[in-house]
Amino acid sequence: MGNMTIKDIAKKCGVGVSTVSRAMNNHPDINPETKEKILQTIAESNYVPNNSARNLKRTDAKAIAVLVKGIGNTFFNDLVSGLERECQRMNYSCILQHVEEQEDELDIALHITKEKKPRGLVFLGGSFSHPREKMEQLEIPYVLSTIRAADMEEKYAAVSVDDFKESYKMTEYLINLGHERIAILTAPKEDKSIGKLRLLGYRKALQDYGIPYSEELVSYMNAEEDRYSFRSGYKLTKQLLQDTEFTALYATSDTMAIGACRALKEAGISVPAQCSVAGFDGMDTGEFYIPSITTIRQPVEKIAKATADLLFDMIKGKEKPHQLVFEGELLKRESTVPPVKRKF
Amino acid sequence: MGNMTIKDIAKKCGVGVSTVSRAMNNHPDINPETKEKILQTIAESNYVPNNSARNLKRTDAKAIAVLVKGIGNTFFNDLVSGLERECQRMNYSCILQHVEEQEDELDIALHITKEKKPRGLVFLGGSFSHPREKMEQLEIPYVLSTIRAADMEEKYAAVSVDDFKESYKMTEYLINLGHERIAILTAPKEDKSIGKLRLLGYRKALQDYGIPYSEELVSYMNAEEDRYSFRSGYKLTKQLLQDTEFTALYATSDTMAIGACRALKEAGISVPAQCSVAGFDGMDTGEFYIPSITTIRQPVEKIAKATADLLFDMIKGKEKPHQLVFEGELLKRESTVPPVKRKF
DNA sequence: TTGTATGCGTTATCAA
DNA sequence: TTGATAACGCATACAA
């Protein structure tokens, strides 16, 4: 039987449709026996309630939407998987929507909110610098995951590591290894999000250790291109090598670090012997790479779970928006060693 | 204004709701001027039609569902992105659903079909060996993407490379380099899908070139684990190294190839000097890896687009299910060289 | 070319 | 504890 409806079930059980609805939705005011019988019948009939009808009636959909900006960074894939799993656990649908680099994630969010009526939103990636008034048009709960704007409104819900601190940690580690000329691959100049924070962490560490900050060691991604990708890491390093010298290179993502390694290799520079390379994120690929990539591991599973939990709690009204910060872990691996002293 | 409906627009324009509906849905029987005016008003009011109501009325949702089995293989991510993009182009929603290794993708498909009423389905990954009768319960069009069962029903729609042929190509290439002891990392023994086909291609090539097939060179993935992942490549190679010797290793995915490289490295075997390594898929990560990984490039974008096109055509009734085969490309890269003659 | 009225499958309100 | 019935927002058959 192709298209059973709630009516068919009702008829089959000799009850009214509202009783069937109650049975399905765990309403309290129903006779346990009736309920049992109805659920039984439903199971046997392999009837599945029509989602659209439910959502129409409910005026919202039992779903959350996840907006992902930037696909070159495979880091998000793990997060998305985690979020999707949490949704399944909560019996929510997960609407996935990619946002192109040049698109405005907030516009898309606004649109999807009206169209699909999800109960909540997760923003992944992108630099999040929207005017407050525009953000307020978003009338449903949302969580920024692994995003944190430099000047972020405190009232936004967000889950992430402390990018400034973690980046400081990494830079400090490189400095303590003895590096002084540390190049960095970072987000476009305009970035106000994690890219900026990581750059600031880098600068602060240099400053604290009395190492002059030099613009020529900073390579900014191209705003139009896919950010944090293998290719951008490769290209930025190529450019860098033409202009300057350094004993360590800090790429602000693992994928970029691997791209960087190839550029170094093509320039005849061996990693880590002649140049140390560090990444950020802690992805599998960096663990298996040779040399394995020193990195800051973000606790992806925890972040995914916390993001989902926070969002669901906000949807239930059990929580107000607030910010959760997880500790990153500095993974010292093969790609970083003390510098060979060279003269410049 | 938070919740505009079609009525509000109708009122605003001084027309009936059906006229508004016609304007939105490109119906022919409408005065171009009226239509223009209505669309104008809609744009100004930032009204977005309620999807659930539409879908309810239509009895199906303007959506396709994509079922992805196996998340360790990042190859699928690119495919999913491509599919999602095509959906956006066609103004379809894309429902993404991950399927765990031990779950039955067909059961999930059957369920989602009833619940969300998508107009079509895409299956990614998984070995597809379901009884014909059960498949026939699926009453909407579906396409198997980058899957092909060894004994697949001809009437299934499928888009992929010819895994047998491509695998043959790769093995032949390794043989022509001079390798005779070629280990292979392959799907679990029970697999009846691309894993089996790739293994068969390998066997056939060996046979054609008079090289004896040896079970000890075949390392089967664990059925419970995440397939085609870095980790499985790593583990399988570790095991292999304990049991036997070989001059080339053919991993049936790029991710596994990279995992294998690490296991070889830990065993003190350098790639490619002492052991060649080849992959399959043609992912970015293999291009940037050092040494870059020889592989069979699957034309992901083309496959994604063809999958979507075929599915949409089937939905429109313009096409019957059929199978599309794309040519893979053997990318000869740094990870494979002629063998150093050793004695065994 | 247009408007009115009906129904899609649910959930929620109300009266029984 | 139940059942009839009215929405939910839209698309469409039918009448105008």
TrEMBL record, chains A, B:
Q: Which residues form the HTH lacI-type domain?
A: 4-58
Q: Which domain of life is it from?
A: Bacteria
Q: Gene3D superfamilies of this UniProt entry?
A: 3.40.50.2300, lambda repressor-like DNA-binding domains
- Organism whose genome encodes this protein: Blautia argi
A Pfam family this protein belongs to? LacI
Which InterPro entries does this entry report, sorted A to Z? HTH_LacI, LacI/GalR-like_sensor, Lambda_DNA-bd_dom_sf, Peripla_BP_I
Instruction: List the keywords (alphabetical).
Output: DNA-binding, Transcription, Transcription regulation
Q: Name one GO molecular function term.
A: DNA-binding transcription factor activity
User: Could you tell me what this protein is called?
Assistant: LacI family transcriptional regulator
SUPFAM superfamilies according to UniProt? lambda repressor-like DNA-binding domains, Periplasmic binding protein-like I
